[in-house]
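To whoever picks this up:

The parser on our side crashed when reading a file containing two proteins. I've narrowed it down to the boundary between the first structure block and the second sequence. Both blocks are reproduced below exactly, byte for byte. First block:
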Amino acid sequence: MPAPLTSAARRTARSTRPARLALIAGTAVLGITLTACSGGAAASGHDGKAQGKGPSKAADTRISVNLHGTAATAGRPVTVTLAAGKLRTVTVSADGGDALTGRLSPDGRTWTSDRPAAPGTTYRIEAKDTGGGGGDTAGFTTAAAGTVNKLTLAPGKNTTVGIAQPLSIVFDHPVKNRAAVEKALKVSTSNGTEGSWGWLRDYSGRDRVDWRPREYWKSGTRITLDAELNGVDSGPSGGWFVRDYATTFTIGSSQVVEVDLDRHRLALKRDGRTVMDVPVSAGTPGGDRASWRGTAVLMAKEGTINMRSETVGLGDLYDKMVDYSMRLTWSGMYAHAAPWNAAYFGVANHSSGCVGMSDADAASLYRRARVGDPFEITGADAKGTVAEGNGYGAWNVSWSDWRTRSALG
């Protein structure tokens, strides 16, 4: 049994008790304050009851981004990584452009954009986690492009063209990273047409890529190109693409123009039925004035134009205003009216390379023909076959060979 307290001891005990209680009360308040600041809560079991294991640690919602600063390297996907936990949403908005879409990694910690960052663009990132709604923000700006690559598309947007018209892209600058560029060129058709890209050298000397179907298009087919090129690097000397491109066109009626150089005849067939069969005189055989054989595609209906022989390497042989001119190659082969050559229509080939006919027949063909119609030219009186880059000569390449020209195999 403890000894009884003396009077002094009792006074000391009474004087220290309030101080101890005050210290204990102060510790409890501090603990509550820390818990509130942490944003955490006691863990809950499956029955929803608190498990009472003390205050939880705050989730670390900081993010890191692979690109940063004011001169970040373009052409790379944006990756956003959460310090701890799992990402719920990530938004990467571009200054003056569309937001980048992307996908989460299996563990939920990393988000990667589907497309690369474009040059000369400011991006802002906002990320949210799957926990208590915490998040973080970041931003960066990519360096501007030193050289910008642009392109020319054919056919024109919302046009109706013939069954042989390819989708053709000519680039302003060289394209060395062909696989990366081709991967960004997405073609869709209304009927699942089989086709392939093929790279070639345009008649102008520039790089070009055409998408042609395995066989002539079916009438009524609708074709759409989405060229998602913004942020794609062309490679050395080519520069960057700094925008996307898109076009849509439709295939008209099935028309084929058959030119027989040996018989000196031209026939227009629509849906397999002959609607024109007229005499013509094509290029003089035996030299540079001969016509090309193979399949050419009507590139443009140019109407009345001035044709001068020096522009096609034939000296000062002619300088004429020519009516109903229909361009078939970049090298200068046309179908057109040639009344000065009437004595040779249906008899002999006696032109400077073009397929000439009477005014009336040329007017009739001009009215019926459509850009994109194939001109199938046969016969011995030719100087060779239309090259794939000389207009749209891809139809003179076999399908198996054409497919090997794709950079994606």
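<<boundary where parser fails>>
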Amino acid sequence: MRAAPLPVRDGLGPDRIRMPAETAAGTIVEFLQATHPDEDWVGRMAAGELVDEHGRRVERHTRYQPTRFVYFYREPAAEVPVPFPVPVLHREDGLVVVDKPHFLATIPRGVHIRESVVVRLRRELAVPELVPVHRLDRMTAGVLLCTTDPAWRRPYQELFERQRVRKVYEAVARYRPELEFPRVVRSRIVKRHGELTAAQFFDGEPNAETRIELVERRGELARYRLWPRTGRTHQLRLHLAGLGLPIVGDNFYPQFLRRRADDFTAPLRLLARALEFTDPISGVPRRFVSERVLEF
């Protein structure tokens, strides 16, 4: 992918709009004013913050460029601050490992832009190239690995893509005495674009697998250790819910319940406890462990 022609600013990269092949507009500005009339295009031009994909400033007379991109900065809507820090577990050269809190998104998306690990750390650590090489759900806490050097990004991403990372999670969920552990759950998980929840099927070719171990029981609840072999969306939440063991604090499964944006009570009791792998750059064994404790 071509690098953006505008730099990261205040933790955020520029937005972009693709110009369609056909339009009645003769200039880029005419197109933008017609399709996005509420934006301040004149102000962006005056500040030199409206450019084409080659980084050239867009002026009023700049001719329309079909199928090309125009880049600009957009101020995101106000967000409810997530009142938890992002502790750094490890930092060296192009690698940063953090202990992500519950309720904080990994990457800027949808209504969670500034309140994301990426934007927060770019600002706090002054590293505009920081990106995560894998993701955790907004409601899941724990170990998250990021790179700050674009040359390091692909080698670490390939570790996850090729399933060469040993991931260990913990969860607090319901206890059912009739279930035997350890056990392996396999299912087919389907997540449709635009839908918040995923669907799980136990017939058809499995695409998700998790080994589950019972660690301890306290009354009607228990703590489980989970080893996901695959990384499907909401896999651990679905696999436990499918056993009749919904994770404490899960407002998605088995039933979706909407939460207020400012409600930081009752977090999902799911924690990415550890990541283990052979470093693709140095070749040395790596193991990073969360310092968080699930309320139980």
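After patching the parser it read the second block fine. The longest helix spans residues 150-161. Residues 15-72 form one domain.
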